[in-house]
Every structure is written in structure tokens, then in C-alpha cells.
Amino acid sequence: MTKRIFRSICLVAISIFLVSIFLLMIVLFDYFSDVQKRQLRTQTALAAQGVSENGSAYFEGLDVSDCRITWIAADGTVLFDTSSDSSQMENHLKREEIQEASVSGMGESSRYSVTLMERSLYCAKLLPDGTFLRLAVSQNTLLTLILGMTQPILVIFLASVVFAFFLASRLSKRIVKPLNELNLEEPLKNEEYDELSPLLRRIDAQQRQIRRQSEELRQKQREFETVTQEMSEGIVLLNAHLTILSINPAAARLFGTDATCVGGHILSVCRNQELQELLNDAAKGNSAETHVTLGEEKYQLNAGPVIAHGEVSGIVLLLLNVTQKDKAEQLRREFSANVSHELKTPLHTISGCAELLSDGLVKPEDVARFSTQIYAEAQRMIALISDILRISELDEGNPGGKHEPVDLYELAKETLADLSEKAAKAEVTLELTGESAYVTGIPQLMQSIVHNLCDNAVKYNRRHGRVTVDVSKNPGTVCLTVTDTGIGIPKMHQERIFERFYRVDKSRSKEVGGTGLGLSIVKHAAKLHNAEIRLQSVPEEGTTISVCFPV
Ligand code: ADP
Fold it and tell me: CB–CB of 384/342 below 8 Å?
């Protein structure tokens, strides 16, 4: 811009200078022509005086170089001429200045002289003797004037050009300086040029708009971050070249990285082959899904392309931890298979016995035994179905009752009373120790806990064994502890006995009427009451299971 202003100023200055010189020359030419005419008139008058007094003697020894003097007779014959041979010259009577002088005494004209071959200025005066004296000078043309002044004009021109360059340089810098120093952060505070006001107002309006839009974007970004920060699912935003644009804490944790990976390639945080294939697929514009195992967890990965103007501009990668879901799915499948299997066995027995009875193939003395077996199997099925129903209710988060204060000691007492007959049959002694202790819980579930633990302690006991139930108050908890002197549980099974249908000894369990769901119900119910289960068991010595409820 500085250069442009500099060039423009120089051009304007030089143009003005040249036009001025030209106009000045015209004015000077006019002025000089006037001066020349006046001088010629004066000289003509002086020479006429000399000729009228001295006649032809005036011309003797006359040395004139600047002008031409011609003496013309009254009839137009040239009597004398300083430039040419007068005898050779034609009659001058018809010359314009002579004609005018013969009328008014003085005549002037200007024309191209064929004799001198240049433009001349003529002035003629009528002498008292009727002759004419004419003086002629060659007249300056504009060109001759300009040529004559070439040298001074050139000197002035050069000086002016240097001066113009100097001034233009300073002016252009001075004009541009305020523009360079414009405060674009606060455009309306600049007061240097009024002409810039519309532009500055527009910049100000645009800046306000940009600020508003940036704030909106920041707000959206904050909202997005707040949402994704709290999500347990991992979210990664990538551009089309698989560079990470954003990663939420869950995804960063999963890849064992942090927010510093933003700006890097996804390969720098995870080199999993399936993930790469998934992302390459998404980069081609296809939504894709895959399952991968990262560490000990299973993840479902969903990659969706973000398409703008028909091109993939980014990829959204969603990582869902499906370990629990998979486990639950598997448990459900196993549960269904187990339920079918568990129900099939008693049904087969019932069906077999009933068939034999209906075909009359059972001896009369055996009818009672068959009927008892049908009854026992039916009871087992009822127990199994009621356990299945209870566990399904717990699975669905429907515990079937309200929380209310329950005296655990009283509950244990009732349970032991219920089991007394069974215990007596098994020759197991029941004992209750401790004190009355209230716990807030769902009575049916508390009853399930106490019953299942005490029932197992009786079932898996030995002859002349003992079951001790203790209810004790501890700081912050109330614990129910069921100790038996039974067969105990080997270490390797201790973790798994709380799983559905898991039994250490399947045949023994069936023999004693177990469903394999008792401890599973205990675990679920305890969890619902935030209670903690502890198990201690030594094979052939006995088992102690305690459930501690928070108070
Ligand atoms: P079940 O209906 O078969 O008793 P449970 O879920 O109540 O099912 O128990 C699971 C398994 O844990 C039982 O089959 C048994 O092998 C073992 N078990 C439970 N309680 C005891 C205990 N007090 N002593 C020894 N083994 C036990």
C-alpha cells in the first residue's frame, strides 16, 4: 500500500509539474510575443526617424543582425534591404503591413517569409516623403521557446522529481502509519480517519458476531464435555485421518492414556487390529460394530462416520463395556438350561411312577412308596419353582415387600422352630445364642436369608452334629452367624457356592432336597440390604456363614 501511495503521489506531482511547465510556456510565449512586438514598433519608429533625417546615408555602415530593415519606395519598389539584394526583390506594395501603413501611418503583420524561410513579425512606418520603412524580426515559436529553455527546465524538473520522491515517501509513510496502528481489538476507538468509520463499524459488528458465535461454540463444547465426562461409556471423536479430536475420561482410562493424546493418531493409544479395521471401515463411510477384549474386559465398539458435503469429515467411536452384560446374558442362558434340567428330573420320576400306577403294575404293598416318591418329587418341584420365582423377583428388582424393623433374634428363633423336626430327623442339635437385635429390612427376604442358612447348616451336617445360630450387635452392624459342625466346603468351591445351581456335591444336595438356589437367594437378598456375607469353612469340620446388616 505504501508503494502504491508513493507511486501515485510521484505520478501526480510529475504530471502537474509537466502540465504547469507547458501552460507556463504558452503564457510566456504570449508575453514574449507582446514584448517583441512593442520593441519592434519602437525600433521601427527610431529607424524611421533616422531615415527621414538622413535618407539613404542612414544605412551606410549599419550593422544589424537581429532584425531586417527594408526601405520601400512609395510605389512598392524595394530601395534597400539589409538581408537581400534589393534589386532582386519583388514589389512590396501589396504587403499587408505596407497597405496598413499607407492608410494609418503604421502597419503590422506576421507571416511566413518566403525570403527568410521563417515566421517573421513585420512593422512598417510611412515616412514623410511617402516611402516606407519596414523592420522585420524572426518571431519565436512555442517550440523554439521550449527548446531554448530546455536546460533550465530539465534542471528544475530533476530537482522537482527528487523533491517529489522525498515528499511522496514521507507522505505515503505518514498516511499508512495510522492504518498499521489501527486497534482492531476495539475498532470504534480509532479516530484517525473518518473515511474508515464504515469499515471499522463493520469490523466491530463482525467481531461481536464472532465473539457471540465463539461463546456459543464454547458453551456447546462445555455441555458436550460435561455430558461425556460423566458417561461410563467411552467416546472418541476422530477426524477423517484418524487423529483424535476429543476423548472422554472413560475412553482415556480404557486406553490407558489421558487428554494429552488429543491431536495424536489413534494408533498411538491403541494398536488393536479389530479397532483399526473398524475405523478404516468407518473412514470409508460405513457404520460398523465389533467386539474386542481389552485387558480383562469385553467391549462393544461402534464407529459411525460423520458425513459433511458427501465426504467423511470425522468418526465417532463409542466404547461400551459389555463384560457384565455378557456375563448376565450367559448366566441367563445357563439359568434357563439349568431350570429345564432341574425340572425334567422330578417330572420324569413323577411321570414314571404315575404310569406304573395307572397301568396297575405296582404291587399293592408298593403303592404307598410310589405315592410318597411322587409327593416328594412334587414337593421338590414346588420348592424349586418357589426359589426360581423368588430369584426372578430379585433379578427384576422386585423384592416383594416394604422395609420395616425386623428382630433378627426372633426371626432366627422361629426358623429354628420350623427346622426342629428336620433337625431331629437328621440328629442335629439346634442352638440359638445372642440377643434381640432389630434390623430394617424386608421381612420375607430376611426370612429367606435366615431359613436358607439354617436349612443348609442342618442339611450338610453329620449325625449328632450341631447348629449354632448367633445374633449379635456390633458397632454399626447386626450380625447373624450360623455355625455348623457339618461336612464343610472345600476351598476351591467356596467362591462359587453363591452361584445359581452350583452345588459341591450334586447328589447329596438332591438327596437332602436342595435346589442349588438357596445361597444365590441369600447373596441377592443380602446385597439388597447392603449386608456383607462372610464364609469360613473347613472340610469335615464345619462351616460358619455370617451376614452382617448395617444399622
Ligand atoms: P442347595 O439347595 O443345593 O443347598 P445352596 O445354594 O443352598 O443350594 O448351596 C449350594 C451348595 O453349597 C450346596 O449344594 C452345598 O454343596 C454347599 N453348601 C451350602 N451350605 C453348606 C454348608 N453349611 N455346609 C456344607 N456345604 C454347604
Answer: yes
Domain containing residue 427: CATH number: 3.30.565.10
Residues 345 and 310 in one domain: no
Q: Is 460 in the pocket of ligand 1 (CB under 6 A)?
A: yes
Cβ(456)–Cβ(487) below 8 Å: no
Q: Which residues contact 526 (CB under 8 A, 6 or more apart)?
A: 449, 532, 533, 547
Compute the distance from residue 456 Cα to the ligand 1 centre, in Å: 6
Residue linked to cell 473398524: 278
> Quick check: is 187 in a domain?
no
Cα–Cα distance measured from residue 134 to residue 123, given in angstroms and rounded to the nearest whole number: 6
30-83 tens-digit pLDDT: 898 889 889 999 999 998 998 888 888 888 877 777 788 999 999 989 988 888
For the domain that residue 310 is a member of, what is the CATH number?
A: 3.30.450.20
Query: Is 542 in the same domain as 448?
Result: yes
Instruction: Show the domain range for 257.
Output: 231-321
| Ligand 1 mean position, distance from CA 405 (Å) | 28
**Which atom of ligand 1 is least distant from the CA of 457?**
23
77 shares a domain with 93: yes
In the chain, how many domains are there? 4
Is residue 364 in some structural domain? yes
Q: Is 393 in the pocket of ligand 1 (CB under 6 A)?
A: no
Q: Nearest to residue 300, comparing CAs of 273, 333, 278?
A: 278
Q: Which atom of ligand 1 is nearest to the CA of 502?
A: 10
- Tell which atom from ligand 1 comes closest to the C-alpha of 504: 16
CB of 452 shorter than 6 A to ligand 1: yes
**Of 210, 208, 235, which is closest to residue 224 (Cα–Cα)?**
235
How confident is the model over 390-402, as pLDDT tens digits? 888 888 777 777 8
CATH of the domain at 385: 1.10.287.130
